[in-house]
Design brief:
globular; 6 helices; ten-stranded antiparallel beta sheet; single chain; mainly beta
């Protein structure tokens, strides 16, 4: 539990007045007159309930309900963000674009709402509204309209005229983004809700599970899978290591997994690299994260099959190459990302913070109207997880990489993708050490494509004309 969570939870003691006369009375002082006792009623006590957005998770803009410490909220074109551009008090805050966040529950006797708000990153100013409903969310009336211009948090308070059950939402229009954090409801008496304490025992989503291995499976390819060739295909911009489907190439073995393509290294028990295309059709939110890790049953029989519990007890996460959140268009798509052939042993902080933030950023580029061609890989031996330095896991069958890298080519949504790439097209290249002390800000690890090629021996973006590829190789992105 982080310090902010501890303070807030300790402070959420809701003093609720009882209906029992016995519990709400105190004997009056003796007046010496011999008269009978009278009762003094204790007035309702004040409460303050704060939603900090530190519990619960939502990493995509698609409309969905999220269970937070105060209850269920609907996030429409909004997420809970942790990027460098997010203004936040603690580790997380709401990032709201063109949509709203709304309570799916009522709270009693509210007299005042306060919240923190700011612009996201370098986005332009915008306007948002605070709305109230007293009929269970059927209709809303506006309590306030706020012009958002600040790059740091401003705390504003808004009076609520009614002392009955009500629920609230924040509505935003336009494509610029804002951050919202620490919404506090103040009132008297019983608020009618129970605040759930932050969960301190939840296993991180990719942490290696112990116990029996799940049953290995193959990939089921649906109609939402990308094409095998042409625009939007995984290898449109090249096969960087010249991977082949020949078994004699066991350490550079090409596998088409339907929703991504990879070069698998049988000796290391992990991918050399994984390549995929990302656009709005891939992140529709049809399915939630499945967490159904499994070995891949389609490996050649001579290859060692890494099982779902192969990293158990090592201090390393099962780190996705192609992320789960990049494939939410169907259960087939999401399940494909949980095969162990898509994993590397990844230091938890590196996986859950640094890389998660980069993945969120790339999905943001898609929702802004772009498509992204991504290739992610690893190299070297020896990483430091939560239990220290290791060179291998799973009885020596799986290499622990020393570095994890990614290259993302970003272009506006369109057709004839190779032809639309120029020497000024945006390319993000990131290379991090596989250690448990990486900074959560992925921009601190930006390098050039050439740097990654030098470290790996690969030729990236090889399908581009030489003059364009050479120009892009040496460009170092700003991260903005």
């Amino acid at each position: 539990m982080n310090y902010k969570k501890l303070l807030i939870y300790a402070g959420l003691v809701l003093a609720i007045s009882s209906c029992s006369k016995k519990d709400n009375t105190t004997p009056p002082p003796s007046n010496g007159g011999g008269k009978g006792d009278t009762t003094v009623t204790t007035p309702p006590k004040a409460y303050a309930v704060t939603e900090t957005f530190e519990s619960g998770s939502k990493t995509a803009y698609a409309d969905a309900n999220v269970t937070l410490s105060t209850g269920s909220w609907d996030f429409n074109d909004a997420l809970i963000g942790q990027l460098a551009g997010d203004v936040k008090d603690g580790s997380w805050s709401v990032r709201l674009r063109t949509g709203d966040i709304a309570m799916n529950f009522d709270i009693n006797n509210v007299t005042l709402i306060s919240l923190k708000h700011a612009k996201y990153g370098s986005d332009a100013g915008s306007t948002w509204q605070l709305m109230e409903s007293t009929d269970g969310g059927t209709t809303y009336t506006q309590l306030a309209s706020v012009n958002e211009t600040s790059t740091t948090f401003i705390t504003d308070s808004f009076k609520v005229a009614t002392n009955i059950k009500a629920r609230f939402k924040i509505v935003k229009t336009g494509t610029t983004r804002i951050n919202i954090d620490d919404i506090t409801f103040k009132g008297t008496g019983d608020p009618g809700i129970t605040v759930t304490p932050p969960d301190t025992t939840t296993t991180p989503p990719d942490t290696a599970a112990s116990g029996s291995a799940s049953t290995p499976r193959s990939v089921t390819v649906g109609t939402d899978a990308p094409p095998s060739t042409g625009d939007n295909s995984d290898l449109l911009f090249g096969n960087p290591s010249g991977a082949s489907t020949s078994i004699v190439m066991m350490d550079n073995y090409l596998m088409d997994q339907g929703y991504y393509t990879e070069s698998y290294n049988a000796t290391k028990g992990e991918p050399n690299w994984v390549s995929w295309h990302l656009d709005a059709t891939n992140i529709t939110g049809v399915t939630d994260r499945l967490n159904n890790f499994a070995g891949f049953s389609g490996l050649p029989t001579s290859f060692y099959q890494v099982e779902s519990n192969g990293y158990s007890g090592t201090g390393f996460d099962r780190g996705h190459n192609c992320p789960s959140a990049d494939r939410t268009s169907s259960t087939n798509a999401n399940a494909a990302t949980f095969l162990m052939t898509n994993m590397v042993p990844q230091a938890p902080q590196n996986n859950e913070q640094t890389w998660a933030n980069l993945e969120n950023y790339l999905r943001d580029q898609v929702t802004a109207g772009n498509e992204v061609y991504i290739i992610m890989g690893s190299y070297g031996t020896g990483g430091t997880g939560s239990k220290g330095l290791l060179n291998t896991v799973d009885g020596g069958h799986v290499n622990v990489p020393s570095n994890i890298w990614k290259v993302a080519l970003i272009i506006p949504k369109g057709d004839n993708d190779v032809m639309r790439v120029t020497s000024t097209t945006r390319v993000i290249a990131v290379n991090t050490p596989n250690i448990n002390t990486t900074n959560s800000d992925w921009t601190k690890y930006i390098v050039t494509v050439k740097d990654i090629e030098t470290a790996t021996g690969y030729t990236l973006l090889s399908a581009l004309p030489d003059n364009i590829r050479v120009a892009l190789e040496t460009e170092k992105d700003s991260g903005i």
